[in-house]
Amino acid sequence: MLYPRQTWARAFIHDLTGMWNFRADDSVSRRQGFDEQWYLHSLSKTGKVIPMPVPSSYNDITQDKGLRDFVGWAWYDTEFYFPRELLNKRIVLRLDSVHYNAIVWVNGQEIMRHDGGHLPFEGEILGHQLSVDDLNRITVAVNNTLTPTTLPPGEIIYENDTNRYPPGYFVQKLQMDFFNYAGIHRSVKIYTTPKVYVNDITLVTDYKDDKGFVNFNITTSTSSPSDLRSIDVVVRDAYDHVVGKAGNLKGTIDIPNPNLWWPWTMNTSSPAYLYKFEVTIVTKDGEKDNYLLPFGIRTINVTNTQLLINDRPFYCHGVAKHEDSDIRGKGLDFPLIAKDFNLLKWLGTNCIRTSHYPYAEEIMDQCDRQGIVVIDECPGVGITKKNNFGPVSLSHHLKVMEELVQRDKNRPSVIMWSTANEPDSALPEAVAYFRPILEHTKALDPTRPVTFVANQDVNKELVSQYVDVICINRYNAWYTDCSHTELIQRQLGNDLHKWHGKFNKPIIVAEYGADTIAGLHQDPSFVFTEEYQIEFMNEYHQVFDSLRGDFLVGEMVWNFADFMTKQEIIRVVGNKKGVFTRQRQPKMSAHLLRSRYYKIINST
Ligand code: GCB
């Protein structure tokens, strides 16, 4: 499944961004929409609808608390015209992310279903399912219910004590620390390709001395290559000069004197250098397809103490993020993406983790283009209960890793796959569960290290033996020994040495942070104040500095910006561990981090 990019053979891409009709099914059964077959007519004929922007989460758009906290099926529809002259093409409907389960109909006919909230899915619309004389309708039903076998897992708890709760009362219990935003979160597009088309491209790059190598494998919709009259593969440099060619679907193209892809902080003369891989196929009938994929030439390697990009040690000075902002929740938003990348550069960040789910491809594009390295994480967050480790969860988790690797495998910015965040990796069940996931991911992509992000006591940890790079989250002087910043150096230093001693692998501290209310000050420092966040971070930085160049290969503050969570007494309108506020204004800690990260950049 290739991202819909416009080329001369694929000029038609119709983006359905805009106001759709919306109706949440708050009937007692939560199935009124199916019982009444809402997909057969415009939603506006079924009852009251409200305008809902796509893409966006629906939760924060209205003043209705019931909709903000809604659990169940929500319905969307919109209309579009389709051009008659394209009816002879392959017509594809693509949704980049719908959280969580989705069913999609066109003109009342089911086109596809998808489970999982953060990865794209698409299906073909057949010519006879469309009208070219009239408007067509697309209907999407979205269900945000999390269960023990979804990723992330969750649970619906029915409260049966009628002294305290009305009959049928239920609550959704979340096992992750972010708001369960729901809806059509990313773009919905209709695009066309020729009937015989380029299906997939896999690129693996390497270099030796002054030569770059692009190993390519192209698949097309026709299984017999003899259906094709010609195959043209061209590699262009950033100035569109042709630097390599081939005439087959599989092979290696040599690139003389390649410009390697570097993170922006490692080589300022040509950071994040992107080539273009262009493939054109012509069938015996003269039908042509053309696809163009940006890519970079670079290698990733791991030793017992180092993470190497292009054989040079890489130290990650980064942030863990969320897709989260006011009003739109997890909805794709270009101004926000641009602002965040400006802030990442302002901070001196060279690496992000897509905590705790795959981010929009438009964000990943910027990582490739701007030279920000990515630890690419799947939505396996909060796998902590025994019933999260069963065979249904496992097979879904394996499938999600396949979808993620498939989507992001050609991105130079992606240097590692993260299969989970903070599962209970001390449980024996976790070994039987994660070992195949890590091995499967490695088999899908042997060119990148695999990991999961651990938070266990080192003595109890069972799964980290199967990863390539250890990632751990630590909250000394916050969740343990709260306020005792004087203990951080001793505790964290000893801890990290033990992890390296036990597993003999490079380590990234993938989270450390303290909740901080912007503008709250107290001296001497006190928890939740800006002074505390700075004092706290400074202590961690001392430990990082003592281990950098040894086995520590990265540090990532939790979090880039404040973000929304469920309502609970440890959260004051969300998680406040951001170095920026949710509105992207800096706390004192952002200035501290900026001077630290630029010092690191200037010293390497
Ligand atoms: C963690 C989790 C993250 C939370 C964070 C916190 O360990 O990985 O999702 O938001 O702690 O602030 O509690």
From TrEMBL:
Keywords: Glycoprotein, Glycosidase, Hydrolase, Lysosome, Signal. It comes from the Eukaryota. Coiled coil: none annotated. Inhibited by L-aspartic acid. One of its GO terms (biological process) is carbohydrate metabolic process. Its EC number is 3.2.1.31. Residues 196-298 form the Glycoside hydrolase family 2 immunoglobulin-like beta-sandwich domain. Residues 300-600 form the Glycoside hydrolase family 2 catalytic domain. One of its GO terms (cellular component) is extracellular space. Homotetramer. Belongs to the glycosyl hydrolase 2 family. This is Beta-glucuronidase.
